[in-house]
Structure formats: C-alpha cells, structure tokens
C-alpha cells in the first residue's frame, strides 16, 4: 500500500503558497484516484497500453472530474469523498485559472472549505491544538493560515479515506 498512496506530510503542503497548496493537494488526490482505478483495471485484465490511453488527456479518464465520477460509480470512494473531491477540483480550478489573487483568506474559499465533509473532522483535530484555536480569534492573516492548515489536513484525510475504502474493498486480494 505504501507505493499506492503518497500520504504527504501536512507540513509539505503548508510550505507551499496558497495556490501551490491547493494545486498540489488536488494533484495528490488525483494520483490516489488514478492508482485505485488503475489497480481495478489491472485486476480485470486490462493491458497497460489501454490503461495509459484511458488516462491520456483525450481519454475517457483524462480529467479529474471523470476520475472522481468513475471512482464513485464503481464504489471505489464514499459519497462524502465524492462530494469533497468535486469541491477540491473546483477550488483547484479557481486557484489555477484565476487572474486575481486567490487565498485562504478569501471568504468564498473559506466557505468552500467549511462545506467539505472531511474538514469537519480536521477542524476538530485542530481545535484540540491551542495554537490553532487561538488563530481563529485573530485577524484575517491568521485566519488564512488556519484555513490553509485545515485544507491541508482535509486533503490528507480524504486520501486516507480513499486508501481505507480501497483496502476494505480489496482485502482478499491483499492477503493472498
């Protein structure tokens, strides 16, 4: 499983710019989805040649959106992971393609992060850390840092969910 999933440290994502954190976070989740879908294809006998074509930019799984939909359609991810992945995809597109400066200090971005199912668990983890509960009471710069950390924890939690759903589904193959 170690080679299937990246499980980056939260500090690695935090060291990126706001834009970088969102783009890299989305890329980590996209890689996790790609790997579980590839595994299913290989398990069902699809050759590497066709797997590569499927994930090619012009292939049926050439976009993050299509990978998310296929993963949910085949039960590879939960409903919560599906909804959160679609929102992370939307955030990634906003951060990657916006002419204006996007940041975790933006109210719309904070609302989108608050809407993520996995951010609720990450938030409760953070609230047990005095430094982050204190940040909420401070200004916008600190609030942006809080939401950046919340986003980074949420990415990690979504990836863990993808991995655990995949492991549960493939437990018999893994124990052979």
Automatic annotation (TrEMBL):
Transmembrane segments: none
Protein name: Mannitol operon repressor
One annotated GO biological process: negative regulation of DNA-templated transcription
């Amino acid at each position: 499983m170690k080679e299937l999933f990246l499980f980056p440290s939260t500090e690695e994502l935090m060291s990126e710019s706001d834009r970088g954190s969102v783009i890299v976070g989305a890329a980590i989740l996209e890689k996790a989805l790609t790997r579980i879908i590839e595994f299913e294809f290989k398990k069902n006998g699809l050759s590497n040649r066709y797997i590569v074509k499927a994930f090619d930019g012009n292939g049926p799984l050439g976009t993050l959106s299509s990978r998310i939909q296929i993963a949910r359609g085949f039960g590879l991810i939960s409903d919560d992971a599906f909804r959160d992945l679609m929102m992370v995809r939307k955030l990634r597109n906003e951060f990657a393609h916006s002419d204006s400066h996007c940041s975790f200090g933006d109210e719309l971005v904070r609302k989108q992060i608050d809407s993520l199912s996995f951010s609720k668990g990450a938030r409760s983890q953070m609230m047990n850390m005095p430094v982050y509960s204190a940040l909420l009471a401070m200004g916008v710069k600190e609030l942006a840092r809080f939401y950046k950390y919340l986003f980074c924890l949420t990415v990690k939690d979504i990836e863990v969910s993808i991995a655990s759903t995949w492991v549960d589904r493939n437990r018999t193959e893994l124990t052979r």
